[in-house]
């Protein structure tokens, strides 16, 4: 039952403490990644330089945790590694802060709070746009910050979950299709796509099973392929359909209005839908731990 114990430990630590307020390893990693990018992202062969930078950042921590995998109580190491990769409590708290500000009619505070969740411009958002952006971010990050981390921890323990979290962090920093990162961050973006391919579809299926299933599956099948991200598309389409909402649509990035595919079916998002999205993710987390635990117990007793 080592896998289940590791998952329970990681989830419990995240539930009790949330993100480490000071000296979080990912903060230090991000600073080093930014420093390295400034020195490597120049000249010719930027794709190769990006690949070398990615390897230099990700390989040493993953290999280091691989050496710990042989310890007698490795499940403790796996659980602690999962804790540093999880963002369940932080995600829920960010969503709650936005929903509370909208409930109190404080649009300025809601715009400020949603800025912690999304990369789009928030200064002129109205209530519906704030609710839509928050719900989209919760659904997408449900995969990135929770379910994919659990998947890789269950598959390969601490080395796999650390590799995933660092790769996902580099994609968030470098995986942009703009002049600065289109070449240098290409490997980071492609690796993240590969690592998230299966978890994203399991997350989409989880959302579908725990809400309006037919609507979620219909939205996933019809809309996901037209979304810009091959993994965010299924997750967000199924999540929107499960909640009976229509998400997507226009958003402003760096001063440019981007028209995005509509996702889901139903009415526009409202402030009260933000907690609904959080509850959907929480039910999904409970389902994953239950299924993995039952599966491991079955294998153990057989």
TrEMBL record:
Pfam families named among the record's database cross-references: CobD_Cbib (PF03186)
Q: Which membrane topology term applies here?
A: Multi-pass membrane protein
Asked if Magnesium is a keyword of the record, the answer is: no
Concerning InterPro entries, the annotation shows:
Cobalamin_biosynth_CobD/CbiB
Keywords on record: Cell membrane, Cobalamin biosynthesis, Membrane, Transmembrane, Transmembrane helix
Q: Which domain of life is it from?
A: Bacteria
List the transmembrane segments. 47-68, 145-167, 285-301
Instruction: List the protein's name.
Output: Cobalamin biosynthesis protein CobD
Can you name the source organism? Uliginosibacterium flavum
